[in-house]
From TrEMBL, chain A:
GO terms for cellular component: glutamyl-tRNA(Gln) amidotransferase complex; mitochondrion. It comes from Balearica regulorum gibbericeps. This is Amidase domain-containing protein. HAMAP family: GatA. Residues 29-489 form the Amidase domain. Keywords: ATP-binding, Ligase, Mitochondrion, Nucleotide-binding, Protein biosynthesis. GO terms for biological process: glutaminyl-tRNAGln biosynthesis via transamidation; mitochondrial translation. InterPro entries: Amidase, Amidase_dom, AS_sf, GatA. GO terms for molecular function: ATP binding; glutaminyl-tRNA synthase (glutamine-hydrolyzing) activity. The lineage of its organism: Eukaryota, Metazoa, Chordata, Craniata, Vertebrata. The keyword Ligase applies.
Length: 526, 443
């Protein structure tokens, strides 16, 4: 059966019933990874260890003692999470060859549940970027570039090279994880989200991307970008799967003092039928400059959908939205400058051959180890942290951050349950076009719709909604109240059911499936 | 933790107006690096100026006694091999986060309470960025480190610019450094100079302070809040919310209850209970385990504590100091000492003999006091007749002295007593001997 196309729940059932073994599942995924290598979604494929884990899982299933729903399920992890014994590079020269001695808490939790770790996925260097194009291992290609849907809609050309030059980006910085999930090489993947790095690529790759509330999931072992905004992100093919993964990851970690102490109870998502008690807020500032008319239309249609189903849909205002990018720029670069200080070539990672003095070694190591983007942010950040600038930049930005967070508090207090917004300004652009602008410009443009949720620490989720005119995915975003993931995901699931986003039709995947497809109904929006 | 103390008025003011006492800074017009000797030239005509008030802030670094480090789970162990107690966080491995050590927080609160400080209910952590490898030598475990911050101002006016004085290695040097720096600042200001907000080092040999950082300008540490450690909130019984898990919280009041008696209270109790002098109580408390030793001896002997204390402080303690031993290493246990003092109290031996026995006990040959007394024949002669005979013999042999005594010079009696002691090799009770001699001489 076309197992890979199934969502994880179904696969779990299949595993339990013995229709497929963990080893078979693992092997198929590994083989698909090989044949989709051109996507460049993976930096490291941990074939040996994955097969071993699959074997162990198989033993448990034979005994009838699986560890849980995730037992035997192949997953992938963004390469900025520490994985013991498996290289962790952050797509940077600074950590090429770095093998961490410990697992990030979230990785350990997945492994403890029996998940099979296929490998580490590609990203922008140190998670800085919105395209997954700026890592040392090269850019990630959006699987949809090779979909029938996209090919059909592109201007017909006869050369096969055009497929090469036409491919579109995944978005970023968790592009590898999004591509991995989108191309069926795994059932779930971990990303990270600091300014939209999970939701953005999720939207472009047509998968579900969840950013949990800050403090819900441990960051221990996630190599930090901005400690006060980073969260581990979850990428899956459906909302139910995201809920299951969330259930296995959330909860207090003594190793991370920013996780909340309250007990977390994993939940199953109810099948919402009645949305009449829901109040959906449409923040007008999210009609941002550059928002494509296509996405604007889709957004409106979604609002209508809720209204017609009986929900209360109202326009709200988050007045400080326009300041979030510049505020983010100051706070992000300041924390980056601080966090990157540890990379001096002494304890681990790249060390330059320059040995005239300690200081020259530091300087050369960091110049050689970091790309322009990282170095640029370090310089900016140090500037903002200087005594003479601290008040005007850092403190000011903190105050603005408070205002942004308060915008949300006010809106949620006024009776709104969930906010509905676009996730991206437009669908995925071709790589050749994307690289015409620099990383900073791109990030500034692309983060506008996702960034504020990180400022406020709120949970947010991208739900694939429909295909664009170019045949590429468009997603919409739901933002919820702090720690109200259950409500957020319940609404997202309802919406997912309504829109019936189409399945990607990939040649490569087809070739792997000897049996018939399991066709899904096409999304009602396309 | 910093404690600030305002300069106490009169004495200092007087001293610093006249530039008296201690080495004074170089006179005006010279680069003040070398220090003049005592009583160096101070510009004339400066007396009669408004008095100065110094302000001294002490930054005291004391290592908390804990099993693990402040922010990482690693163990702490004195003199462990280098790099053997480094956790992933200590090695700054990417992705690791600091976790605050609860015991350290409690110890800090305890210390603050013991020093009668007010405890801040909310504390924040900052990151200090110090990139270069010119860190001062890491302070040795278990030693106290003190930096002194000094400034001067006229009463009623705002505080002056402060300097920080480092490299102070003892309490004695602390006093010297502070004194010097106060005087230096006053001299500087009275000559029309200014005080730089700088770090200075105390030079113990020369007894003065010198500027430390003469290279680049000030370091910009680019402080920023530590994002991985939420604010530390401490509670007391009043502020603790009802629904909060008490395991998760540091309660100042509970710690207060658990505080042992502070030294001043302990000392007062000792004085009251045992009738010893206040200065005795200081010594008892200042030596590790000595109070307990003393109390154990008191428990095991009939000798009054007022007398016991003499044996503890004069004999036992001086012996330990002489041989650089700690109380734990003492060959004489409280049991043995009590045994000895009992012999003395029961008048079975003289105090001279007791000291002799004690000296033997130091050898640590595991003999009891009684065994030593028997061995060395140190018992007081109990036989009255024997004593009388010896007294008589001494009287018979000292005609001149006897005559002097009978003539009224009673001091000479001591010589006779001394002779009896010698005859008996210290085995006679001088009080009894005195009585016997007096009786005989009056006949």
């Amino acid at each position: 059966a076309a197992l890979k196309r199934r969502v994880r729940f179904q696969v779990s059932a299949a595993l339990k019933e013995g229709h497929v073994t963990p080893t078979e599942l693992c092997q198929r995924c590994l083989s698909l990874i090989k044949s989709t290598k051109f996507l460049n979604a993976y930096i490291t494929v941990a074939e040996e260890t994955a097969l071993k884990q699959a074997e162990e899982s198989e033993k448990r299933y034979r005994k009838g003692q699986p560890l849980g729903v995730l037992d035997g399920i192949p997953i992938a992890v963004k390469d900025n999470f520490n994985t013991a014994g498996i290289e962790t590079t952050c797509a940077s020269n600074m950590l090429k060859g770095y093998i961490s001695p410990y697992n990030a808490t979230v990785v350990q939790k997945l492994l403890d549940q029996g998940a099979v770790l296929l490998g580490k996925t590609n990203l922008d260097e140190f998670a800085m970027g919105s395209g997954s194009t700026d890592g040392v291992f090269g850019p990630v290609r959006n699987p949809w570039s090779y979909s029938r849907q996209y090919k059909e809609k592109s201007v017909p050309k006869s050369h096969s090279e055009d497929e090469e030059s036409n491919w579109v980006i995944t978005g970023g910085s968790s592009g590898g994880s999004a591509a991995a999930v989108s191309s069926f090489t795994c059932f779930a993947a971990l990303g990270s989200d600091t300014g939209g790095s999970t939701r953005n690529p999720a939207a472009h790759c047509g998968v579900v991307g969840l950013k949990p509330t800050y403090g819900l999931i441990s960051r221990h072992g996630l190599i930090p970008l901005v400690n006060s905004m980073d969260v581990p992100g979850i990428l899956t093919r459906c909302v139910d799967d995201a809920a299951v993964v969330l259930g296995s990851l959330a909860g207090h970690d003594p190793k991370d003092s920013t996780t909340i102490q309250d007990n977390f109870t994993p939940f199953e998502l109810p099948n919402l039928t009645d949305v009449s008690k829901l109040s959906i807020g449409i923040p007008k500032e999210y009609h941002a400059p550059g928002l494509s008319s296509e996405i604007l239309a889709l957004w409106s249609k979604a609002a209508e959908l809720f209204k017609n189903a009986g929900a209360k849909v109202i326009e709200v205002s988050l007045p400080h939205t326009c300041y979030s990018i510049v505020c983010y720029h100051v706070l992000c670069t300041a924390e980056v400058a601080s966090n990157m200080a540890r990379f001096d070539g002494l304890e681990y990672g790249h060390r330059s051959d320059m040995n005239k003095s300690t200081e020259s070694m530091y300087a050369a190591t960091r110049r050689e180890g970091f790309n322009d983007v990282v170095r640029g942010r370090i310089l900016s950040g140090n500037y903002f942290l200087l005594k003479q600038n601290y008040e005007n930049y850092f403190i000011k930005a903190q105050k603005v951050r408070r205002l942004i967070a308060n915008d949300f508090v006010k809106v949620f207090r006024s009776g709104v349950d969930i906010l509905l917004t676009p996730t991206t300004l437009c669908d995925a652009v071709p790589y050749m076009e994307f690289i015409k602008e620099d990383n900073r410009t791109r990030s500034t443009q692309d983060d506008i719709l996702t960034q504020a949720a990180n400022m406020a620490g709120l949970p947010a989720i991208n739900v694939p909604t429909a295909l664009s005119e170019r045949g590429l995915p468009i997603g919409l975003q739901f933002i919820g109240r702090s720690f109200q993931e259950k409500q957020l995901l319940t609404v997202a699931k309802w919406f997912e059911k309504q829109v019936k986003f189409p399945m990607i039709q990939l040649e490569e995947v087809k070739r792997h499936d000897h049996n018939a497809f399991q066709h899904q109904k096409s999304a009602s929006f396309s | 933790m910093a404690a600030a103390a305002r300069g106490c008025g009169g004495v200092w003011r007087r001293a610093w107006q006249r530039g008296a006492g201690g080495p004074s800074p170089a006179p005006r017009g010279q680069r003040a690096v070398a220090c003049n000797a005592r009583g160096g030239a101070v510009p004339a005509g400066k007396s009669g100026l408004a008095p100065w008030e110094p302000v001294v802030g002490l930054e005291i670094h004391a290592q908390i006694s804990s099993n693990s480090k402040l922010f990482s789970g690693s163990q702490v162990q004195f003199a462990a091999p280098p790099n053997s107690l480094v956790s992933f966080f200590d090695a700054s491995l990417p992705g690791t986060l600091p976790v605050l050590n609860r015991r350290c927080v409690e110890a800090a609160v305890m210390t603050g309470l013991a020093l009668n400080c007010s405890i801040n209910k909310k504390s924040l952590f900052d990151r200090k960025h110090y990139f270069y490898a010119d860190l001062p030598f890491p302070f040795i475990e278990g030693q106290l480190r003190v930096d002194a911050n000094v400034s001067v101002h006229h009463p009623g006016e705002p505080y002056g610019v402060r300097t920080e004085v480092k490299n102070i290695n003892s309490i004695r040097f602390l006093a010297k450094a502070v004194d010097y720096e106060i005087q230096r600042q006053i001299e500087e200001l009275e000559s029309g100079g200014t005080i730089l907000n700088e770090t200075r080092a105390f030079d113990a040999k020369l007894g003065c302070t010198v500027p430390m950082r003469d290279k680049e300008g000030k370091q910009d540490y680019r402080f920023m809040p530590e994002p991985n450690l939420p604010p530390l909130i401490l509670y007391d019984a009043k502020s603790l919310p009802a629904n909060m898990n008490h395991q998760q919280v540091v309660n100042i009041d509970l710690i207060h209850e658990r505080l042992p008696d502070l030294p001043s209270v302990k000392r007062a109790k000792l004085v009251e209970r045992y009738g010893i002098l206040p200065e005795h109580s200081f010594t008892l408390l200042n030596e590790d385990g000595l109070t307990e030793f003393f109390e154990n001896v008191v428990k095991q002997t009939q000798m009054k504590p007022k007398k016991v204390i003499g044996w503890i402080l004069n004999d036992l303690l001086s012996y330990l100091k002489q041989h650089s031993l700690t109380l734990k290493e003492s060959p004489v246990s409280s049991f043995l000492l009590a045994d000895l003092l009992n012999l003395l109290e029961k008048k079975e031996i003289s105090s001279t003999a007791a000291k002799h026995v004690l000296a033997e006990l130091w050898k640590g040959e595991r003999k009891t006091p009684l065994e030593i007394v028997k061995e060395k024949k140190l018992e007081l002669i109990q036989d009255q007749k024997e004593l009388e005979q010896i007294c008589q013999a001494v009287i018979d042999g000292q005609e001149n002295e006897v005559m002097a005594i009978k003539a009224g010079n009673l001091k000479v009696l001591n010589k006779l007593i001394g002779l009896v002691q010698r005859e008996t090799r210290g085995r006679s009770n001088p009080v009894v001997v005195k009585q016997l001699l007096e009786k005989k001489l009056s006949q």
